[in-house]
Amino acid sequence: MNLRKTFNNLGLLVLLMAGLSVYSCDGEVSTSSGGKSGGTVTSDEGVKIHTFRVINSFPHDTEAFTQGLVFDQGEFFEGTGLRGRSSLRRVDLRTGDGLVILELSSQFFGEGITTFDGKIAQLTLSSNVGFVYDRASFEKLSEFSYPTAGWGITYDGENLIMSDGTATIRFLDPQSFEVVRSIEVFGDDGPVTGLNELEFIKGEIYANIFPTEIIVIISSATGKVTGFIDLIGILSAEERTANAVTNGIAYDSVNDRLFVTGKLWPKVFEIALVPID
Questions:
Q1: What is this structure's pTM?
Q2: What percentage of the chain has pLDDT greater than the value 90?
Q3: What residue numbers bound the domain in which 163 lies?
Q4: Assuming Cys at both sites, which of 38, 110, 159, 185 could form a disulfide with 86, CB separation 3.0 to 4.6 Å?
């Protein structure tokens, strides 16, 4: 079997999924053309393609509609969505229990989170507002605004990096939250949209592609897709429920561990990447 050719065919799969199954703001799958949609992703000989090997699995709250996932200084943080169910959590990775849970006002649909400078930033989907909390106490310190939807956010040690579901990724000053630069994410067939949860890893941006089981690896300098991770099959059909979309990437930089999960999933997986030649 030509695995590279097989993976290239995922570009068509992603495009079909984008047209058939997208989310409305209440988190239910619909067949409308609005909401979150994926983009076409294919690969050429210069792009790295990976499958995965599961190293460990950990319990995950099946009521958690995961929108953001962070591993920082030995602690696990999670942001969840849905109106009336959105939260910010400090989670015990070993048990999946929420050690501290801050519930958002029911008017907000929580989205991506990241840690930076002793703080946590959390986006909201369509309210054009993000929140900044003290990392230790979860006390809200401030708010910031943005004109787009809020999807994923991460931190590269200098700037906050934000997605809004389009092919555009914006870099924000962590003090003023003003946009300092932006990149357009592209693959061999043009713009790649549906960029959701983000994680900055070793100089590159990893992004879930909504609503697929594909993670793209993006050059933070140019926006070019440099690799793919195929997570198809990581969660069994028996474990998957309606709306259980792959979403959530966290990286333990000290121990070089990569974690992935999804909305309403029963597990968080620690994985190793397996290159496809």
A1: 0.88
A2: 79
A3: 46-275
A4: 110
